[in-house]
Amino acid sequence: MTNSLLGALAMVMRTDPGLVRGQNEDSVFVDADRGLAILADGMGGYQAGEVASNMATTLLSSGLQRAFKTCAAHTIDQGSGQLFAQRALVEQIAAVNSAIYRAAEDQSRFGGMGTTLVAAVFCDDRMVVAHIGDSRLYRLRGDEFVALTRDHSLLQEQLDCGQISAEEARYSVNRNLVTRAVGVDPQVEAEVHTHVVHPGDVYLLCSDGLYDLLETAEIQHLLEMFGANLDLAAMQLIQLANDNGGDDNISVVVVKVLREFPAPPGRWSKLLSLFR
């Protein structure tokens, strides 16, 4: 576990192939120094999903780091770091989508590959989250545990229009059919939102290999029980998913807000100041 963004955040990541799959097509990335967390769940033929998810986390993390560094080096008064983070996420995810799509077009063995994606940028007492597909981001604040992302999936659409109930959804054959993914089409739209963060908040990024096998209440209970030890929290989440069958890859990123991290005086973003 690492504490950074000037001691304001603690982050831990963990990924596991599960008990059934022969390979791990999930990929995770954290940069606690700069408040970045990314998780991707790949899909496609043999090794193609692994390639897509690895491309997503590698290209997005490096692209965001370059964007923030360029802005910090050339802009005297950027203003709101969160607005820049929103724009950078949209632009860099579009570039990642194009790169994965081109790789699939150029190499037949990667044909049809793609990946879900959820990425969080912490800056100026806020979190900017972008997601595509059905990987999720949850927030534990006090005794309230909520999903801050809404799946881009056929199942979610059926739930939204009342075709099926939440109980029926748990056993639906459409559980893993996403309606939006990175790299499948020439263009994709990331859904982006900004949330105010509070000291004590715990954020969980996870693939469907976790939440498909654990009840929401179970996830909340583990985060509450082990919130003081994020490494142990991540291990216990994955262990319980494996205990419940482990029929998919399981990945988690757990982030805890330790204290406030407002923008410094002069309207410089805390995030951008770290890249100067």
TrEMBL record:
EC nos: 3.1.3.16
Top EC category: hydrolase
Top-rank taxon, per record: Bacteria
Designated name of the protein: Serine/threonine phosphatase stp
Keyword Disulfide bond: no
Keywords, sorted A to Z: Hydrolase
Gene: stp_1
Chain ranges of the PPM-type phosphatase domain: 10-257
Gene3D superfamilies recorded: PPM-type phosphatase domain
Lineage start: Bacteria, Pseudomonadati, Pseudomonadota, Betaproteobacteria, Candidatus Accumulibacter
PANTHER family given in the database record: PROTEIN PHOSPHATASE 1L, PROTEIN PHOSPHATASE 2C
Pfam families the UniProt entry points to: PP2C_2
Gene Ontology molecular function: protein serine/threonine phosphatase activity
Keyword DNA repair included in the entry's annotation: no
Family matches, as InterPro entries: PP2C, PPM-type-like_dom_sf, PPM-type_phosphatase-like_dom
Organism of derivation: Accumulibacter regalis
